[in-house]
Amino acid sequence: MKNLPQIREISTLSFNERVLQEAEDRRNPLLERLKFLGIFSSNMDEFFKVRVASIQRRIDLGKKGMQELVEVVGHKTRELDERFRTAYAGIVAQLAEEDIRILTDQDIAGQPDGTTAWLQEYFHEEVLPSLVPVIIAKGQPFPPLVDGALYFGVVMEKRRTRYAILEVPRELPRFVESPRGDIMYIDDVIRHGLNEMFYIFDYDRISAYEFKISRDAELDIDNDFTEGFVRKMQRVLEQRKGGRPTRLVYDASMPLGLRRLLLKELKVSGKDTLIPGGRYHNMKDLMRFPSRRKDLLFPDLDPAPHPVLDRDRKPMMDVIEKQDLLITYPYQSFDHVIRLLREAAIDPKVQEISMSLYRSARISQVVNALYNAARNGKKITVNIELQARFDEKNNIRISQRLGEVGATVTFGVPPMKVHCKALLIKRKDKLIAGLSTGNFHEGTGRLYVDSILLTADKRLTEETARVFEYLRNAAKVRAVSAPEFKHLLISPFNTRKKFMRLINREQKKGKDGYIFIKANHLTDEGIIDKLREAADAGVKMDFVIRTTYAMRPHDNIRAISILDRFLEHQRVYIFGRGEDRKIYLSSADLMERNLDWRIESAFPINDPKLQQEVSAMMAIQVADACKARVLDENQSNHYVGTAGAGGHRAQDETYKYLMKRWEEESSSSHGPAK
Question: How many domains does the chain have?
Fold first, then answer.
């Protein structure tokens, strides 16, 4: 296939390789490396549920070349899985040197009697009541196996071989700690107790082998919404459980007879991806590995005080009405967003709050604030995206909860997703807007790098109100005329056109032109062609692309990807330099779906001081020589600096920059900072 590294699926695997590199990177603390293995595993699960499922759908439609892509994906996946197992074994050995031992069921025999007695008691009281083995017998239907669950194939051997399927209950903790402080997978606790479950059968030997199935996670939603969107989504989510298999991961030591049985009953063929793996699967749980040793984790990073919001304890809306504010978290605190919503919920001057929610925490302070505001008599309008993949159930629950207190809940413009992150507060006759690059989610707000602009600038607040008006009208009447925007860039209405004009503007400057792009994805063919034209004209460009990158190399384009303790999630677009520059922050990546098939927002940074702040932080990113990888023609993931060496580390330097801003603002203000 031509330009293979630029194909989205291969580029996504290249990103997942960068995650794996963080687990292999000895500069990272030991337990953090274990967490990166968990992130890698979670990413690969989603990759097969979404991207590989998409390839299979294209194969079904007869698209040429797709089977070759499946084979390339399978080869690369098996290569990464082997690296994963090597990294895991190395980390486990190093943990043992730190007196953190991970015991298997086979290790128990060599432990003191007290450990064996504890394990048996724990199994009988905490584990056995939850186990439901299913015996495989002729004439009996094979049990339905759900995506992402962890299963044992149990083999009982004597003159004839008997099989059983046993699901590892999700409600059980994946890791348990013995009285001596050793760690065990719940998997090995179950292995240790096999005889306690199957003692009624006559066998000479019993063994269990883990496996899991990945299924197509795409939701087939037609355009008939007469039954109501929530009910439709609930019905379609049930259909996802039986989606087509896309991957079978199994213990490489699994007997051939059991493997053939699984392939037959699960209808997995040679066209699907088969991964012979290690003893344990669902390694995403490593993200929750017991981690009491703080010395083996990244040092705690207290949020840098905000130079305005943390200087004086004034009502936030009074401050925002006087000046634009930018919060970049987790370097600064996401709690400022919660504080704004809580103030709005009880402020007698506030009449209305409108908000768009794409993903929210399961126990969400954001949702709690909206709930309180409704109970305090505010008019609340919330657009909740029910098609946010893997968050559909949580979003349905939130929509029902808010509806109970009289909030108006809308669901966007199906089948388009509403991906913009916007907040609008009406306070007497004034409007205050919050425009964000990321979700209003306090959990990811501690892990993902995002920025939110808080502003009372009428040019932006009035157009934000126009977005919410459009969403309200679209909820009632599907055919709604497209609104007009002059200052905000709102997909699918004007974002593509405006970006094209801004690229053209720089192209006319030739060697004096400059473009900076920070995004998660750069794959849109029209934008890529236009950027290459500008680069051919001499325009210098710096790209910081986290995940998928479809451009071929160019002498005037420097492209890197940064992966570190925080997930880079901001989208920042800068056109030009100095006073001539135009800076936009956005929820939108440069993909066809974000530009043409979703409701997205890109918002200008107009305040000169904030422009300088954004430019300075992006310059810090470009200079990374520690965690940046070069996005070359083959996406080979070479570090910009020397792996294992120090150097300019963008995330550390960004934190230092914001701390310095606080110190400078504090020293120049009247009186000590409060």
Answer: 3
